[in-house]
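Possible regression after last week's pipeline update?

I re-ran a chain I had predicted before the update to compare outputs. Posting the input and the new output here so someone can diff against the archived version. Not blocking, just want to make sure nothing changed silently.
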Amino acid sequence: MQLQDHLPVDHRLGQVYRYSAGAIGVFLIVFGILGFTNHVGYFSTNGDHVLGMTSNGTLSLLSVLFGALLIGGAAIGGNTASTLNISVGILFILSGWVNLGLLDGNHNFLAFHMQNVIFSFLVGLALMLFGMYGRVTTHLPYDNPYWRSRHPRATGGVNQLPPRALPH
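New output (post-update):
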């Protein structure tokens, strides 16, 4: 089964994917815009403080782009928002690890400091958690479309519930 398959567009899990992507996307856009207002150079390794973190022009631009991407995924919703949350979450975690290695060096082109690294890890984990919510667990309810697609014999087909889960 692929992650983007089998979830009905109107399934209640779509709200989790949509709202989480939208909220984090809005925060990233606000952070990026506030970073632009400080007029820090695009490749400054020191950056300027914005919302408790440091930022430069490149980080501001990336924040706005990823924020817009997440809001676009939230507007589409459903599987797209979920898959996008997982993918962007992985990128945030990778960014945290890479920038942790670049701290206090001459190649710190995003002007990361430790608070940025921690933020990157936390946002990455949150996005992955929201993206995987209801998709990746061993205790999915019988009416979950992912459970049905993983157990076609028990359900008699992907679109049917197993006999023990039918309402009385």
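Follow-up from reviewer: compared with the archived run. Residues 13-136 form one domain. Marking as no regression found.
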